[in-house]
Amino acid sequence: MLTIKNLQVKLEDEDKQILKGVDLTVEAGKVHAIMGPNGSGKSTLSYVLSGKDGYEVTGGEATLDGEDLLDMEAEERAAAGLFLAFQYPVEIPGVGNMTFLRTALNAQRKARGEEEMSAADFLKFVREKAKTLKIDAEMLKRPVNVGFSGGEKKRNEILQMAVLQPRMCILDETDSGLDVDAMKLVSEGVNALRDEGRGFLVITHYQRLLDHIKPDVVHIMANGRIVKTGGPELALEVEQNGYADILEENA
Amino acid sequence: MAVARNVLKQQKQDLTQARLDALGPVTDQGWSAAARGAALDRLVQMGLPHARDEYWKFTRPEGLTQATPAKAAVFETDEALIFDQVDRLKVVFVDGVFSAEDSDDLTEAGLKIDRLAEDSDIHWAQGLYGTLEANGQDPVARPLAALNTAFATDGVLIHVTESAKRPISLIYRHTDDSSDAILHHVVKLDAGTSLTVLENGPAAARFNKVMEIDIADGAAFHHVRAQGRDHERQAATHIFARLGTESVFKSFTLTANGRLTRNECVIELTGDDAVAHVAGACMGDGDFHHDDTVFITHDAENCESRQVFKKVLRNGATGVFQGKILVKEGAQKTDGYQISQSLLLDGDSQFLVKPELEIYADDVACSHGSTSGAIDEDGLFYLKSRGVPADQATDLLTIAFIAEAVQEIEDEDLAQEILNRVEGWLERRRG
């Protein structure tokens, strides 16, 4: 589904290489996790894949079901089925959450040549999704993420994922800022979306999120590259010994 | 210095004389004759505005003061007119001339509506006409308003004795590319009554309008205005309002296009526990110059005032905001708020701001703030990452930017009319 080959990326404004040849393939129906120390390039990978400005691809490629992602605008990538759950969801004062969700869904449908969803159908659809994430009507009415707690923001990200139903989901440190209960709620939301047609790339510092969202494959990223790939046991190894051993092996 | 001042004084006198010559003599208008005469005296005393005047430093007044107006092409559009879906009593002026044919019957339950141009010797508006305007000349001169009182050719005089069932809608059509219109309205609300006044349309190539509003105890006045889409029109408008105890004044203005617009709003809170909100949003493109000049005087206890102004500017457009809160001695527990913000859609546009607070009471809460900024890149990326195309995302953020001002409109349907108009403007810009 998601295929990344030898991806090299530098900052646009600085002569600083962040990704130095990333190779990664996420198959449909699988959950891949990326772990790694601070500054290893995990978040950059998620931003470059979703089309954020400020980065320059200096080599390699990234495709979603064979389509060249790097050649598309951010909104085209979304319509093609890519979704990034932000580490720091953005507050948008003045735009109601419902308006935001409906505008996004209908824009994607339009881009794919599908019919837009009516206001009544949409309301019903969102309410149902929101209920399982314990998002009340009040939160749906409020401006996007404004005044939301850390947990509410992350739940709102998962709600967007549930509404937009992307094929490929990237979760960037979705566990950061969450207490145990909120992490459980968010994980349940993600697990409910697990499907044989959908791929996940879960970026995290810690093993504990992976207790809830069980990965099929775990990658360790360091210094702009994937340095080790293994099964779920690799995450446990990191939890016990830290990154030092793995980094040494690959030095 | 003395020589320079004399030169300036001479320039203003010459300017004023040229304008007066073009206008001709003040015609005898029955009951309003005395007020008109006094206004003419005020005007001659003050002289028309000059670029050297303190409150005209950001806005060049020439277009508003020159003897004859610059030509302004009429904007052609198929778009539905604003407020079309609203149940209202229509009063239509075409290039400043009342059109009986296009207007509704001016008989309305609870209201007495007359036209200024209808001649008679006595009238309830005698004693009000020009009075609030005259009061509003101190401490800041507003010569264009005095000119208006002296030379207004028409306008409506609305006396509200019982709360109005539907809004009065003043519609200003523009058909002549060199029309020069001067209209003066007076609204008097009796205690405990309420009225909504809507205004829309470009009015004329050049438009000078004054509205004086006297709001008695416990009365509520709501005002929603859209100033028309003609690109080349020029306008100077003044609102003078006096508020009694526990009364309410709420005004919102949308300005999209127009080469030069100066909207002044002068409010005096004279009774305790009164509320005055003035808000505006403008959408400016190219050689667009828009000036909001607001002066709110707190002269009673426990009153609240809000000024909320948002300007969206692109392509070299200029926005001006001069807003003042004056809290007089004894006006304790005043709650005054003022915010003016611009969204600069490119690097060519500018926003010029002069916020002022002057406070002579010791137990008040007053705040003001002003910002200028571009579209929030993080917000834009967030929207795009959810599939919203860049243009649509920019529009959504632009509408979000003006939302705080639009929210000052209490009636949701009227607010929606304004938002539809804003969306139309944004769409045309992409065209």
Automatic annotation (TrEMBL), chain A:
One of its GO terms (molecular function) is ATP hydrolysis activity. Residues 2-248 form the ABC transporter domain. Keywords: ATP-binding, Nucleotide-binding. It comes from the Bacteria. PROSITE patterns: ABC_TRANSPORTER_1, ABC_TRANSPORTER_2. It holds the Pfam family ABC_tran. Gene3D superfamilies: P-loop containing nucleotide triphosphate hydrolases. Belongs to the ABC transporter superfamily. Ycf16 family. This is Fe-S cluster assembly ATP-binding protein. It comes from Pseudooceanicola nitratireducens.
From TrEMBL, chain B:
One of its GO terms (biological process) is iron-sulfur cluster assembly. InterPro entries: Fe-S_cluster_assembly_SufBD (IPR055346), SUF_FeS_clus_asmbl_SufBD_core (IPR000825), SUF_FeS_clus_asmbl_SufBD_sf (IPR037284), SUF_FeS_clus_asmbl_SufD (IPR011542), SufBD_N (IPR045595). Residues 177-401 form the SUF system FeS cluster assembly SufBD core domain. Residues 34-165 form the SUF system FeS cluster assembly SufBD N-terminal domain. SUPFAM superfamilies: Stabilizer of iron transporter SufD (SSF101960). Belongs to the iron-sulfur cluster assembly SufBD family. This is Fe-S cluster assembly protein SufD. It comes from Pseudooceanicola nitratireducens. The lineage of its organism: Bacteria, Pseudomonadati, Pseudomonadota, Alphaproteobacteria, Rhodobacterales.
